[in-house]
Amino acid sequence: APPPRLSLADWLVLQVPARALLEGDELRLRCRGWNHANIQRVQFFHEQKALGGGTTGGELLLSPLQLHHRGHYRCQAKVYYVVWQDKESAPVTVTV
């Protein structure tokens, strides 16, 4: 598969492993600021439902992976570029 394309509009990127995921696996989702920009108050979403509180680490661990974990994920965070701004990643699809 070709590498993902990024544009300057992609302030936040939600990273998932580029491999097949099976039930029982450990899945770590990472929300990252573009070009190593500082981020705060990271919030993850599965479909449209918020998952837990805001984290500073920018990671969400799903373990053990189950069928109900499949679907669309995205993250929101405050990104620092001159000033703090609220941004949202493009959705990614997790297939189990």
From TrEMBL:
InterPro entries: Ig-like_dom, Ig-like_dom_sf, Ig-like_fold, Ig_Fc_receptor, Ig_sub, Ig_sub2. Gene3D superfamilies: Immunoglobulins (2.60.40.10). Residues 4-95 form the Ig-like domain. One of its GO terms (molecular function) is transmembrane signaling receptor activity. The keyword Signal applies. SUPFAM superfamilies: Immunoglobulin (SSF48726). It comes from the Eukaryota. One of its GO terms (biological process) is immune response. Keywords: Disulfide bond, Signal. GO terms for cellular component: external side of plasma membrane. This is FCGR3 protein. The lineage of its organism: Eukaryota, Metazoa, Chordata, Craniata, Vertebrata. The gene is Fcgr3.
